[in-house]
Structures are given as C-alpha cells and as structure tokens.
Amino acid sequence: MYDIKEWKHIFKLDPNKEISDDALELICESGTDAVMIGGTDGVTLDNTVNMLARVRRYTVPCVLEVSNLEAISPGFDFYFIPTVLNSTNAKWITGLHHQAVKEYGAIMNWDEIVMEGYCILNKDSKAARKTEAKTDLEIDDIIAYAMMAERMYHLPVFYLEYSGIYGDPQVVKKVKETLHSTQLFYGGGITNEKEAYEMAQYADTIIVGNSLYDDLTNALKTVRVVKS
Ligand SMILES: CC(C)=CCC/C(C)=C/CC/C(C)=C/CC/C(C)=C/CC/C(C)=C/CC/C(C)=C/CC/C(C)=C/COP(=O)(O)OP(=O)(O)O
Ligand SMILES: O=P(O)(O)OC[C@@H](O)CO
Ligand SMILES: [Mg+2]
C-alpha cells in the first residue's frame, strides 16, 4: 500500500483532453509520485477507464479524483474525493457524497478513499463556477477553512486550488503554518521549475495539470526540482 504522505509531486491528467502515447510515457516515467486522473467537465466512464488502462502500462501509482458519479471505475490505487469547503451549494460539500455512499457504501474499500477539503480560489476556473465557490476570501477566511478541515473534520488533505492560475505563495505559506497533520496540496498554474520550487517550499504536495498539455518539456522539469 502506498503512503500518500510521502507524495511531494502529482501530475493531474484530464481524461477529457488528448495526450499522445509518447507524452504519457514521459509523464508516467518522470519520477512523479502519482498520476491523478480528474477534471471538472467531460469526464465519462469511457475516457476515465481508457486513461486508467493507458497509465497502467507503467508502475506509477494511479488515483481517480472523483468528480461525478457516472465515471467511477474499479482498478485505481486510491479514490480522492473532493469536498468543496467554500462552495455555497451543499451538493458539492456533502450532497453528492451522500448519494454516492448510499449507492456504493456497501462495496467501498475505505482504505482506498482519501477525502480532500478543497478551497477554490480562482473565481474564473471551471471548478469554481461549477461548484458556486465563494472565492473572494481574505487570508483569515482561508486559514479558517484549513483549520476546519484539520481540527473539525479531520480531513487527511486540504487542497488550495487555483486551477489555471499561479496562486499566492504567501497564502500557501500561512496555510502550511496553520496545519499540523492534514496534508497540504497546492495546485494551480505551475508551469516551470521555479514555480514548482517556490510552492513546494510550503505545500506538502504540488499538483501540476494544465501545463502538461501546454508545455510538456517544462512541466516534466517540475518533478526533479521538488524531489531533489
Ligand atoms: C464501483 C467502485 C469501484 C466503487 C468505488 C467506490 C467509490 C470510490 C465511491 C465514491 C464515493 C464518493 C463519496 C464519491 C463522491 C461523489 C462526488 C461526485 C463528489 C463531488 C466531487 C466534487 C465536489 C466535484 C466538483 C468539481 C471538482 C472540485 C473537481 C476536482 C477536479 C478539479 C478541481 C479539476 C480542475 O479543473 P479542470 O477540469 O482541470 O479545469 P480546466 O479544464 O480548466 O483545466
Ligand atoms: O491545471 P493547473 O493549473 O496546473 O492546476 C492543477 C490542479 O490543481 C487542477 O485541479
Ligand atoms: Mg485541468
């Protein structure tokens, strides 16, 4: 069984986007700690299972970040389940989770389930719009969500999500100072070594997504700088 606490770097692959076999090989053999499959829209059972099968040619751990009930498939090492703490719609905090557990609870292997407390901060991201997230937050609001995640809900992961834009390193630093046992994920706009290094000084784990599709060469370099 893998220990996600040791993961410092994750590549997030969007099953709704095209990736060539050559690019996928470079990603899976990059030395990243895990490949996470997930996205906000266009995620189907077909494209999820297809991506899983392609990643399974390699030994890298493979995680499904569940974003809809229709695209859950067996065969992943872990299932990361987002709950959007700053959503204004209960559907994205506990609603779909209740529905999922009602449907799958009896067959779920709870050792494979990892809850992620999301705080979404880019108001223009698809994830923010879809989940009706309240993104105009002061640092004290963000810290309060981090404390809730750790102290009230005992979530294993708190995910500072800037999807699509590079966030504020000082926010990541302050959130890290707040957390003791909950693992801090940072994702958003990391495109090169310098940005990866900066965010990895504070976040326990950085997630690199879009830049895999925009500039693979530089995206791949984010692994070495974090793990060395
Ligand atoms: C049959 C079998 C194997 C069963 C296994 C059991 C199992 C795993 C059951 C699931 C249990 C469970 C509780 C599921 C939760 C269900 C669910 C749908 C919860 C809601 C998740 C949620 C809040 C989604 C909202 C969107 C979100 C936060 C997505 C995360 C990914 C993300 C932020 C992507 C970033 O955006 P992106 O798409 O990359 O944007 P761009 O395209 O613009 O880059
Ligand atoms: O796609 P980017 O901006 O790299 O963000 C990564 C990840 O946090 C998205 O959910
Ligand atoms: Mg994306």
UniProtKB/TrEMBL annotation:
Residues that hold sn-glycerol 1-phosphate according to the record: K12, Y159, L160, E161, Y162, S163, G164, G189, G209, N210
SUPFAM superfamilies recorded: FMN-linked oxidoreductases
Binding site for Mg(2+): D14, T40
Required co-factors: Mg(2+)
Pfam families reported for this sequence: PcrB
Biological pathway: Membrane lipid metabolism; glycerophospholipid metabolism
GO biological process, any: glycerophospholipid biosynthetic process
Transferase among keywords: yes
A GO term for molecular function: heptaprenylglyceryl phosphate synthase activity
Keywords: Lipid biosynthesis, Lipid metabolism, Magnesium, Metal-binding, Phospholipid biosynthesis, Phospholipid metabolism, Transferase
Keyword Magnesium tagged: yes
EC code(s) of this entry: 2.5.1.n9
Substrates-to-products reaction catalysed: sn-glycerol 1-phosphate + all-trans-heptaprenyl diphosphate = 3-heptaprenyl-sn-glycero-1-phosphate + diphosphate
Family stated for the protein in its record: Belongs to the GGGP/HepGP synthase family. Group I subfamily.
Subunit: Homodimer.
HAMAP family reported in the protein's UniProt record: GGGP_HepGP_synthase
Function text: Prenyltransferase that catalyzes in vivo the transfer of the heptaprenyl moiety of heptaprenyl pyrophosphate (HepPP; 35 carbon atoms) to the C3 hydroxyl of sn-glycerol-1-phosphate (G1P), producing heptaprenylglyceryl phosphate (HepGP). This reaction is an ether-bond-formation step in the biosynthesis of archaea-type G1P-based membrane lipids found in Bacillales.
Listed name of the protein: Heptaprenylglyceryl phosphate synthase
Gene name as annotated: pcrB
